[in-house]
């Protein structure tokens, strides 16, 4: 994660069902679904003003850390999150082994 994002807090916006960070009034976020022992990440997006800044990667990394800390298992349905985990295999440890694409990570 780029240093400029390290101190930006991750917010779990339960109303919008997304994890988000706010950067200069603009949002990068991941839509999620949650069960007792799992969190599914469905879609990652950054507002156009944040394109190319690393904000999307930062919100993914912060969200993965939150899931790890929660003890829940991850279902990475979002292609961006899936690709992030492939690039950073240390996060595979939090992916639910029953996830359909687990063997491709």
TrEMBL record:
Gene3D superfamilies: 3.40.630.30. Residues 11-96 form the N-acetyltransferase domain. InterPro entries: Acyl_CoA_acyltransferase, Gcn5-rel_NAT, GNAT_YJDJ. It comes from the Bacteria. This is N-acetyltransferase domain-containing protein. It comes from Epilithonimonas pallida.
């Amino acid at each position: 994660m780029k240093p400029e994002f390290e101190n930006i807090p991750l917010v779990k916006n339960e109303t919008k069902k997304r994890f988000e960070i706010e950067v200069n009034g603009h949002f990068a976020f991941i839509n999620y679904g949650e069960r007792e022992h799992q969190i599914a990440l469905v879609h990652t997006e950054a507002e156009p003003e944040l394109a190319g800044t690393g904000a999307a990667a930062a919100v993914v990394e912060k969200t993965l850390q939150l899931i790890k800390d929660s003890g829940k298992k991850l279902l990475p349905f979002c292609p961006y999150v899936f690709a992030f985990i492939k690039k950073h295999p240390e996060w595979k440890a939090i992916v639910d082994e029953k996830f359909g694409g687990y063997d491709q990570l």
